[in-house]
Amino acid sequence: MEKKLFLLLLMSFFVIVLTACQGVHGSEKKEAQEEQRIEEEKRKQEEQRIEEEKRKQEEQRIEEEKRKQEEQRIEEEKRKQEEQRIEEEKRKQEEQRIEEEKRKQEEQRIEEKRKQEEQRIEEKRKQEEQRIEEKHKQEKQKQQSTQVRGGKPTRSQISIGTHVEIILDKDRRTRVSGVVKDILTHTETHPYGIKVCLQDGQIGRVQRIG
Question: Where is the signal peptide (predicted)?
Fold first, then answer.
């Protein structure tokens, strides 16, 4: 009986010791797992930090590269604009020089043309005066010849611009003078005179020239 009791107590003791050992082992396992979890979390955070740092550095590098490229672009644009400005200034100066040269040449040409035109007008005026004077002489001679013959002027003696005296068709008692605008009779002579239209529109037959 005492032996059985002793064995029972011994077994209880072992159970208590085993349970305590298992508790200690479980606690250590949990602590190790917790430490591993914390370490893993730290590792992940460190990796994230490193990745974030790399990302920021890459962004900074890209931004710096963009800034440098933009500065280079702006400098290149300024250089081109300056070259264009200088080239445009040269072009304008050359155009002004050419325009000034053209203007002087044109002024000389106009002045020369004006002088030539004045000479031409003067010559034409003299020629016209001579022509009118000659025409008056011829008309006077024709008139004298016609009056000597006692007849009316013939068609060949009358031309556009000749100063004549006519008897109006609409009133044969009225005589008027004027410059011939058109000759209406196509025969060389007519018993009542060559029919004409004056510049003022009056129509009649020529009685005499002058």
Answer: none
